[in-house]
Design brief:
Blueprint (H helix, E strand, L loop, with lengths): L13 H36 L7 H6 L1 H24 L3 H27 L2 H17 L5 H14 L59 H4 L8 H11 L1 H37 L1
Membrane topology: Multi-pass membrane protein
Subcellular location: Membrane
Keywords: Membrane, Transmembrane, Transmembrane helix
């Protein structure tokens, strides 16, 4: 015999519903925080410099504060759709939410595949183009400058490509034809010992004239390897850890998509029950 379901029976699982709600509520708050931080930094930089260049896609990609605000906006909108869609049992919002997660998952997989499939020569061309943009904008964007200095000092690298410290010859302040006192030099963050231990002060002149020196001599004063090569070497040494983390993120995304589609199906089933 089949047990009869009472009038208060619902096909919608409260566990699935509130699990999606809680997860997206956390990401919704995180997205709002990213928007606030990004806009605050963007406005502060605008007031300090009075000029922000956003002519090309590279200008947007290299504007860290604006990029944080844009990413925060995407997280805010998508998580808000999942949060409200689960709470209000709205299938349209749930479909939008699961579609966004699926697109993100496919973009991540496509990027990983392209990284292995594309030839090394194409990677080199992309690196050269990106390096020229980054190095050229070093002094124009305070946020980008702080980020590059942080990366170079922490990863013990100088420049981006395999040319290493010679990448800075593409910068209008550090190239050897510049009238600046920094000509033929590199930023202080490239220096092996930029900080005086006794005084605690940073010697901003420690990299002056280093482009005129061969690699063997320059390596005594500054880091000579490019940051991309350093990061690539680190990734190769920790390939299993990175692959495990990437697999964990991918499975988490698929699990959330599964929850959203499950809740969507339960809501549709409940609506069909009401209609009959």
């Amino acid at each position: 015999m089949h047990r009869r379901r009472g009038p208060n029976f619902t096909y919608v699982s409260g566990c699935v519903k509130y699990m999606i709600f809680v997860l997206n509520f956390i990401f919704w708050l995180f997205g709002g925080l990213m928007i606030a931080i990004g806009l605050y930094a963007f406005i502060d930089k605008w007031q300090a410099t009075g000029l922000i260049k956003l002519d090309t896609i590279y200008d947007v990609m290299l504007n860290i504060s604006l990029l944080i605000a844009l990413l925060g906006g995407v997280v805010f909108i998508v998580s808000f759709a999942g949060c409200v869609g689960a709470l209000r049992e709205n299938t349209c919002l749930l479909k939008f939410y699961s579609l966004c997660l699926l697109i993100l998952f496919l973009v991540e997989m496509g990027g990983a595949v392209c990284g292995f499939v594309f030839p090394r020569s194409l990677h080199g061309l992309l690196e050269q183009s990106f390096t020229e943009r980054v190095v050229h904008a070093y002094r124009d964007d305070p946020d980008l400058q702080n980020f590059i200095d942080f990366a170079q000092s922490d990863f013990h690298c100088c420049g981006l490509t395999s040319d290493g410290y010679m990448d800075w010859s593409k910068n209008e302040y550090f190239n050897c034809s510049s009238p600046s006192v920094e000509r033929c030099g590199v930023p202080f963050s490239c220096c092996i010992n930029a900080t005086d231990i006794s005084s605690g002060l940073v010697n901003i002149m420690c990299g002056y004239g280093v482009q005129n020196s061969p690699v063997a001599e320059a390596s005594k004063r500054v880091w000579t390897s490019g940051c991309i090569e350093i990061v690539r070497s680190w990734a190769e040494r920790n390939l299993y850890m990175i692959a495990s983390a990437a697999l964990g993120v991918a499975l988490s995304q698929l699990f959330v998509i599964y929850l959203a589609k499950t809740l969507e199906g339960q809501i549709e089933l409940q609506k069909a029950r009401w209609q009959t």
